[in-house]
Amino acid sequence: MLETLLCRTFAGTEMERCVNAFLQCAEESGSPIHRRDKSRAHAWLATRQDPHVSVGVAAQKDYWDFDHEAFDGVRRFLRALAQERPAT
Predict the structure, then answer these.
(1) DSSP state string for 53-85
(2) For the chain, which end, N or C, has fewer CB atoms within 10 Å of the first or last residue's CB respectively?
(3) Model confidence, pTM
(4) CB 41 within 8 A of CB 1
């Protein structure tokens, strides 16, 4: 999932600890988390200036750090894909 990559951009930060604590609390209160990375991404988005936006709109608002090393593999893949296809 895209959210898995997005969550890696705040891995190891204090915010990750807060998001994980929130989701753990929700689970302990009887609300099971079914799609953990989607839930983590949306919990993180809840801390942004405009918290109701979708993951895509959040990208447009530069909420995600696309320069983060989590996206290195995606960048390599896209560059290799672009090199393999002839320009039209």
Answers:
(1) --HHHHHHTT-S-TTSGGGHHHHHHHHHHHHHS
(2) C
(3) 0.79
(4) no
